[in-house]
């Protein structure tokens, strides 16, 4: 996108997979409808032979499992064996890079959370010029992220309306990190699952 562009995110579920999106130019990012960004991926799952409810998938990086059920995100409980997964809905067992899961509703709505300590999902960086960012109607589902609100000295304004998920300053372990510029957030939120 070029400076001054407006990006419309259509209603739907998006995933973040160990990449850091940096906004270093003036942009508008607007969610059209229910826009949700999830910290993880939806890997292809295979029915595990010999079990009625267990599905397996491979994921090199990841340490938590979640399932989207309607408007809710349910965090799975880690158990000690594949047999325990069979016996417990919304549970998982991890062996090396293989995850075994017992979905409650839909295996295709089960996602593996990324190992994301030390990473943000999105950053606004105004160190190379004055960036004006407007972000509206976007929800991020995360874990291991802070929800601090602070305004760094080189930020001209940060305007909040129904926002509870921004950290300003040099910290990359948050859903949104602001290094400076003018940032307006409208009807944005993070849900820590």
How many helices? The count is 1
Number of strands: 19
Order of helices and strands: EEEEEEEEHEEEEEEEEEEE
Question: What's the Cα radius of gyration?
Answer: 18 Å
In words, what does this structure look like?
The chain is mainly β and 193 residues long. It has 1 helix and 19 strands. The protein is elongated, with a radius of gyration of 18 Å.
How do the helices and strands line up, and which of them pair or pack?
Layout: E1 6-16, E2 21-23, E3 27-41, E4 46-47, E5 55-58, E6 64-69, E7 72-75, E8 77-78, H1 82-87, E9 91-95, E10 98-102, E11 110-113, E12 122-124, E13 132-136, E14 139-142, E15 155-161, E16 166-168, E17 176-178, E18 181-186, E19 189-192
Parallel strand pairs: 1-3, 2-12, 3-13, 3-14, 8-9, 12-17, 13-18, 14-19, 15-18, 16-17
Antiparallel strand pairs: 3-11, 4-5, 5-10, 6-7, 6-11, 9-10
List keywords for this structure.
19 strands, five-stranded mixed sheet, elongated, 193 residues, 3% helix, 1 helix, mainly beta, ten-stranded mixed sheet
Summary of the model, kept short:
The protein is mainly beta and 193 residues long. It is built from one helix and 19 strands. The longest helix is centred in the middle third of the chain and has 6 residues, at 82-87.
